[in-house]
Batch of 4 targets.
Target 1
Amino acid sequence: MGARSPEARYQEIERWLRRRVLDATPGDPLPSESELAAQFRVSRMTARQAVQNLAAEGLVQRRRGAGTFVAPRPIHRHEGSLMSFTEDMRRRGMKASSRLLEAGLRPATTADLEALRLPDGARVVAISRLRLADDVPLAIEHAALPAECAGVLADDLETGSLHESLVARGYVPALSRAWIRARIASATAARLLEIPARSA
Amino acid sequence: MGARSPEARYQEIERWLRRRVLDATPGDPLPSESELAAQFRVSRMTARQAVQNLAAEGLVQRRRGAGTFVAPRPIHRHEGSLMSFTEDMRRRGMKASSRLLEAGLRPATTADLEALRLPDGARVVAISRLRLADDVPLAIEHAALPAECAGVLADDLETGSLHESLVARGYVPALSRAWIRARIASATAARLLEIPARSA
DNA sequence: TCAAGGTAGTTGTCTAGTCATTTCGCAGGA
DNA sequence: TCCTGCGAAATGACTAGACAACTACCTTGA
C-alpha cells in the first residue's frame, strides 16, 4: 500500500512512541518491534521503521538482543536556549511542518534599517512562512534579511531551515565579524484557549 | 541473511555511493534504487537502506518521482532537517544567547489578523528579542501572539524559551487542535495554502 | 504553437516472511 | 553459592515481491 492517507502507518507509530518517550524516564524499555507490529496491525518492518527513525534522532537506544530503550537525557538544555518550533513540536509527538507563503524583495522599513544598520533606501529579502503542527496552522513567521542574502531564496524553504540556508551560504560569520546582520521577525501564533478539556 | 560478514551489504553500497558523491557536483543524479539493486544483486529494500542512510546524513537528496541527487552542500551536513538557532551555533562552538528588547501589547496589524484569524480590533502580545552568537548580534526576532497569551510576559524570556513558556501555560495543548480544525473548516476562504508556490 | 494527456520511471510505503546475532533470565549441576 | 548451558526473545539483515504517488518527458490534438 502506498501513502494513501496523509500520514503513513510508520509515522503514526512514530508519534505514538514519541509521546511514550516523553512520559518515560531514561532507560525505560519500549515495546519490541513485534509488539508494536501486533498492536498496530502492521508488519514488523513497518514498526521497525518507526523505531529506527527515533533511534536516528537519538530519542531511543536500540540494543541488539536486548530491546529498545529511552535514550539517556533526552533533552533539556536550556541555558538561554531557544528551541525551534520544529524541535519543540517534534518532542511533543506532533508533526511539524511549514509552508512558504511569500518570498521576495521589498523596501526595508525604518525598523528594518535601524535593526540591521542598513543605509537608507536599502531593500530586504522578505520571507513569510506558515508553521503547522499536525497540519494545524500554529504560527506565522516573517523574516527580513539584508538584500545580500537574496541567495537563500533559491533554497527550499518549504522544508528546510532558514538558519541552515544562511549558514550554508556563509552568511553567518564563523568568527565574530558583524558583516552579516539578519533581521528575523517572527510572529508566533499559538492557538490557546481553554476549550472544554477533551481527552486526546 | 544476517550480518555474517563484518560489513553488511547495504553498508557496502553506502560506501560505494559515498565515493560517487564525493566525485560529483551538487545536483548530479545518482543511480536509482532499482539500478543499485541490480548492480549489487540485492533486493531493492537493501539498496534503499543505503540511500536512505545517506539522505539522513544530508549527503544526497531524494525527490519522489524524480530520483536521488547529490545534495547542494556536501561539505555541510546536518542530520536534522531543521536545526534551531541555538543548536546550530553550538555546533559551531559558539555561544548562543538572546536579549529581550521589548515585550508588550499592541494592536494587531491586518496581516496578524488574517494570519491568526483574529477578529477585527484584536490586540497581540509583541515580543522582540535579539539573538547573539558569541555576543555578536545576528538576528532580531519579533513575535506576535494573541492577547490571550499575555501570561507569557511574566516569564523570563531573557533566558527561557518562548515555546516552553507557552507550553508551560497550556497554550499549545493537543486539546486545542479540534477547536482549531473546526475554525479552519468554517473558514472556506482558508485557501492561502495554495497561494505560495515558488520554485527554486 | 501550445496545451492536454498519457506513460515510463522513480521514490514512498508496506507485506510476510527467513535467517543470523546478541542478550538475558533461568534451570540445573558442581 | 557459584556458574554453566540452554533457550526465549530481541534486534539486525535481507528477500521478493506489491501498489501508490509523483515527476519528467513525450505524444497527440486543437
Target 2
Amino acid sequence: MNQQIRVRFAPSPTGYLHIGGARTAIFNWLFARHYKGIFTLRIEDTDRSRSTDEFLNLIIEGMKWLGLDWDEGPFRQTDRFDVYKNYAGRLIKEGKAYYCCCTPEELERKRQIAVASGLPMKYDGKCRDLNIKPAYMSTALRFKMPQEGQIIVNDLIKGHVAFENSQLEDLVIIRSDGTPTYNFVVVVDDIDMNISHIIRGDDHLNNTPKQIHIYEAFASKMPQFAHLPMILGHDKSRLSKRHGATSVLAYKEMGYLPEAIVNYLARLGWSHGDQEIFTKDEMIEYFSIENIGKSAAVFNPEKLLWLNSHYIINSNPLRLAGMVLPFLIQKKIVSEDQDIDIKWLSKAVNLLRERSKTLDELANSLRYFISDSVEIDPKASQKFLTTEGIKYLSEIRDSLSRLQDVSAAEIEKIFTDLSKTHNIKLGAIAQPVRVALTGGTASPGIYEIIEIIGKEKTIKRLSKAIEQLGKGFS
RNA sequence: GGUCCCAUCGUCUAGAGGCCUAGGACAUAGCCCUCUCAAGGCUAAGACACGGGUUCGAAUCCCGUUGGGACUACCA
C-alpha cells in the first residue's frame, strides 16, 4: 500500500464560499473519499486586514450545507505563526533567505520601468547580497530563488509545464510587519500537514514553480499537483459577482438543493462517460483526476436549474416539505408560530414536485393550498369564469356537497359525469374550477387539489367565484 | 509588455490514429400524452477555430496562426 492520501481545501476568509471554491473543495473531498484518505480544512487568513470571522463562519456553513465533511481542521494560519517563524529561521540560517529594505515606493517605481522597457516585472535583487540585518521596521524577508536553469512542474492535469528560473523573483516570505505571506505559508503548511496531493485552481499554476523551490529549500518530499481549470461566466471571463450569484449560500436561499449544486459542480470539468446524474456514492466511486478536463468551463445556470428540478422531483415529499417550510415562513404564507401538519403539507408538495424548479417556486405554488382565500387573476377570471363556466361551477359545488368520500377518484367521477351529461370536454369544467380554486390557469390535477384542500374550503372558494360573477365581476 | 495555460454543437461534455456520415446532457423547436401547467416519451436543428505537416488514414500526434484565460503584490 502506498502512502496515505492527504488533501486539503484552503480558502481564505476574505469572502463567502463561492462557486469556484466550492468546486475545488468538492474535487478534493471526492479525491479523499475515493482513496479513503484525509480531507483537511485549512483557513488561509494571513492577510489579517481582509480576513474576518464572519466570512470564516459562512465558509464553514457552506461546506456543511454541501455535505463536504472534513477529517482535520479547520486550522487557522494565524494560529501557526510560530511554525512559520521556525521554518523561516531555517532558511535564514542556511542562507536561503535574506532581509530586504527596499521601500514599496522604490519597488513600484522599478516595476513601472520594467513594464515600460518590456522586461518581466520582477524584483531586481538589490538587497540579495547586502547582508542586511533585521530592523524593527521596513525589513522584509525574501526567499533566494535559483536564477538559472529550468523547473518542471509535473501536473496531474496539465502535464509537464516548464518555467525558466530566471523568470522567478525573490519573493517576500515574511512581511516587514512580521507576518508571513501566502506562497511561503502554503508550502510550510503542506509540508507540515503532510499533504500528498495539492488540488487547486489553475490560477495557482504560475505560483507552483516558486513553491517547488521552497520545498526544495527544505529538502522536503514533493506533493503531487493537480491544477483545475477555472470556471468562467457567460462572457468567458472569470466567474464573478457581475455574472450573478456566486455565493454557495445564495443558492441555498434561492431554493437550490445541495445535491444539485454538488452534482453540477462536479460535472463541470469532470466527466464519467455520458452520465449526468450522480449520487454522492457514485461520484466517490467514479472520481478520478484522469477524467478532469484541461479547459476552462462556462458556468451554466440553466443546467444547474435543470439538475435542481431533477433532484426536487426525485426527493421524498416529506423531506421537501421540511425544506420548504422556511421559505413559506419567509413569504408569510405560514406564520412562525403556526402549527402546520407536515404530513398534509407533503401531499401538496408531492403534487407540486415536478412543477417546481426551486424550493422558492415550490413555496409560491403552495400558497393556494395553505391560505384561507385565493386571489383570482383577472385574466384567468375573464377567460373561464364566464356565465357558462359559473354554471358548471355551481353544478360541481352541488355534487361535491353531496359527496361523502372526498377522494380524487370520487371527484373525478363527478367531473366526468358532468362532462358526459353536457357533452362537453373536461377542460370546460376543469378550467373554471381551477381558476376558482387556485386563482390561475396552471396547476396540478384538479381532483387531487380538491382532495387536499378539502370539501369545505373547496365549496367556499367555488361559492366565492360564483358570487363574484353575480356582482358583475368578470 | 513578460511568463504560463487552454481550444469538439450556444453551454457542459464523450472521444486516448481507423469503431466518427462525431455520441450524450442543458437550452431551443415540433410532435405524442393530457382537465391546465409541468413531468415523461419521440423527433429536429446544432460543433471538431484556422493553416501547414506526420501517417495508407487525424477531432485525436507535431508546428504555426488566431482567439480566450490566468499569473505578474510586503493579496490569497
Target 3
Amino acid sequence: MPELPEVEVVRRRIAPLFVGRTIESVRTTRPSYFFLTPPVTLQRRLAGRRATALERIGKYLVAELDDGGRLLLHLGMTGQIFASDAASRRLLTGKRRRAPAQAGPFRPDRHTHLVFGFKDGGPRVLFRDARKFGKVAYLEPGADEPRLTKLGPDALKADGRALYEAFRSRRAKIKTVLLDQGVLAGVGNIYADEALYLARVRPTRRADSLTRAESLAIARAVRRVLMRSIAAGGSSISDYVQPDGQDGSYQETHYVYARTGEPCRRCKTPIRRVVIGQRSSHFCPSCQR
DNA sequence: CACTTCCCCTGCAAGC
DNA sequence: TGCTTGCAGGGGAAGT
C-alpha cells in the first residue's frame, strides 16, 4: 500500500478539500477493527468540527480539529481517500487498470468505510479500504497516541549518521530494519527495496555489518526515492490512486520492486526475489553487495 | 530489549 | 468455466 510518497500525495491533494470546511455528517460502515474509535463516537465527535490543518506523520494522516482534537487516518495496504467528484474509473480495485471508465460519480460501496459530508454542500471526502488494514481514530484534545509517539524521524529527513548509529545495534537484516517505523517513519516494502538498490546494499545484509559509508548511502537513497516518487504522484501498483482518481507513475521507474527475473537496469543481471520477514524483497545480485 | 511468527481481510492472477 | 492456491504496498500482538 501506500507508503510515505503516496500518503504525502494524498495529503497535498485532499487538504484543500478537508481543511477549513465544517463537517456536517459522517457516514460509516459497521463497527470493525478498522475503527479504532467506534463509528457512533466518530459521528458524535466530528459533526460540527472543522479541520485547521492536515499533516502527515510517517504513513499517518493527522487532521488538527478546531476543538483541539485530532483525526488519525492510516491507509493500510489498500486504503484510498478521494473526493466524491473524482474520476471514478479505477477506484474499484485494480490490477486491471485498463478497465473502461465508469460512468457517473463514484457510488459508495461496502468497502467505503467513511464518507464526510460538509456544511457547504460541496464535494464529500471518502475513505475506501477493501482489506480494512487501514485505521481511523479520533484523538481527544491532549490525548497521547502511542502509534504516533513511537515513530522515528520522518524518512524524508533520513540522516545518515543517525541511521549508522541505529544500525550498529541491530542484528536483523537491513531490509527489516528499514521497515521498522520506529527507526525511520514512512518507508515501506517498495521504497526499502528501491533505496537499497540505489545504495547498492543487499536487503539480506545484517544492519550491524553496514559501514558508515553504506549507511550514508542508504539515507541518501531513501530521501531520493521518496522525493522522486512524490514528484511522480506515487506508485500505483494495484489499488493506489491519487485523490482525483488518477494513477501515480513512479512504478514505471522502479529498479527492482516487482521486477523479479527482469534485467537489472544497470547491468542486465536478472532481478532476484527473496522473502525477508514475510515480505518479498527484490535486488540485483550483481549490483548489490 | 531485539527479533520472529502469526494474524487481521479481501480480491486478483495463475495454475490445474 | 470453476476451483484452489499464492500473493499483495501495513502493522500490532504474542511468542522465544
Target 4
Amino acid sequence: MCQDVVVPADSRVRRTREEILSVAARLFAERGYAATSTRLIADAVGIRQASLYYHFPSKEAVLAELLASTVRPSLELCRDLEAADLAPAEALRRLVTFDVGVLLRVEGNVGLLYALPEVGTDPFSTFRTERAELRDAYARLATAALAPGVHPVTADLVLGLVESVIPLRRDSPKLPPPDEVGEALAAAALRMLGAG
Amino acid sequence: MCQDVVVPADSRVRRTREEILSVAARLFAERGYAATSTRLIADAVGIRQASLYYHFPSKEAVLAELLASTVRPSLELCRDLEAADLAPAEALRRLVTFDVGVLLRVEGNVGLLYALPEVGTDPFSTFRTERAELRDAYARLATAALAPGVHPVTADLVLGLVESVIPLRRDSPKLPPPDEVGEALAAAALRMLGAG
DNA sequence: ATTATCTATAGATCTATAGATAATGC
DNA sequence: ATTATCTATAGATCTATAGATAATGC
C-alpha cells in the first residue's frame, strides 16, 4: 500500500490546475469547445500551450472534469430529498431553488456547457449518464406533484424551465438577485404543474 | 436594369444547395459548428469538399443562412399577432403552439443551432439582433398576460420554456405528437403566468 | 457557352509528445 | 531530487483558392 500523494490546497500546481479549469469553462461556454484551442486557454492562464499537458492528459479531460463538477451537487441534493420523505411539491421547490441559485451564481455561466453539442459524443458518456439520472429525478418529483387533469408531459418540462435561466442570464444582464429569481421560478414551476 | 437570374425550384444546383443546408444543419446540431468540417459536410452530400464553395462563399455563410431561416417565420407570426389585437393570453397561446410545433417537427432538431456558442461571435450578429426581437415580443405578450401578484421575471421565462422542447426532443425519444405537446405547453405557460 | 463540379495545394492552424531547463522543498 | 514549466516539433488536420474538366441546356 502506498500513501496518497498529498497536495496542499493552495499549492502552486493546484492553483494552476484550477485556473486552467476556470479559464477553460469560461472560454468553452463563450466560444464552444472545438473553437477553443489549448493555446487560447494557456495564453489566458499565462503558461505555454504544452504546459497544459502536465495538468491534464488531454483537452477532453478538461471538459470532462468541468462537466462532472457541475452535475454532482444537484444529484446529491436529489438523493437527499428523495430520502427525506417530504411532500413532492416541497421537495421540488427546494431542488428548483437550489439549482437556479447555482446556475445564476456560478462564474462564467458554466451551465452553458451542458448544451455544448460535443458533449453528445463518445468521450463524455459518463457525464451523460449522470445527467440522465438528474433528469429522471426531476421527472419523478414533478410527476408526483402533478395535479389531476394536467397533461403528464408537463412534468418533463420542469428541468427545461430551470435551465432556461442559463440563456436568460446571458441575454438579460439586468436580472433580480439569484434568490429572488429562484423563488419566483420555483413558484412558477409549481403553478405550471397545478401544484400551487 | 438587368433581369433577375431565374433558378427553377428543382434545378440541380438548387437541390445540391439545399442538401448542403440540410446536411449541415444536422451535423452542426449533432457535433457542433467548429467540429463539423467542410469535408464532413461535403462527404455527407456526396460532393468534393471544394465544391461547397461554389454554393457558399464560406462555412460561416452556411450557418448564417440556417439561422436566418429558423427565426424568421416566428418573427412574422409575432408581428401579425401584435397587429391582430387579440387578448394577450390568446396571442401568446397561439405563438407558443406555433413555435413548439415548428421546433418539434423541423428535421434534424435544428433548434439546437440557437444554442451553439459560436453564434455569439461577430459573424452572426444579424441573427442575434433578429432573435432579440423575438425575445422581446415574447416578453411583451407575457407581461401583458401576467396576473397581478405574479413576479414579473416570470414573463421572461416563457421563451425558455418553449425552447426546452429542443433538449426534450433529443433526450426523450418517446414524446406525444407535436400538437399535443404544443397545447400542453401553451396551457402550462399560461398557468405559470397566472393567466389560466 | 455556361454551369457545376473536380484535382491539387497553399498556408494556417491544432493536439500532443520529447527532451531540456528552471523552480521548489526536503 | 522532484516538480513544474519551457522550447521545439511531428503529424494531422482545416478553410479557401486556382485552374482544369465534365455536364447541361440553348
